[in-house]
Amino acid sequence: MGNESSKLMSYTLLVLLILIWGVSWPIYKNGVNFMPPLLFAGVRAFVGGAILVLIAWKNRHRLNFKSNWRYYLISATLNIVLYLGIQTVGLIYLPGGLFSVLVYFQPVLLGILAWWFLGEAMTITKILGLVLGFIGIFLVSIDGLTIHVSAIGVSLALATALVWASGVVYVKKNKTRVDPYWMVVMQLVIGGAVLLAGGFATEDPSSITWNSELIFSLIWGATAGMAIAQILYYKLINEGEASKVGAFTFIVPILSVIISAIFLDEAITLNLFYGMILVGLSIYLVNFQRKRKDKLPKYES
Question: What is the pLDDT of residue 298?
Answer without folding.
Answer: 46
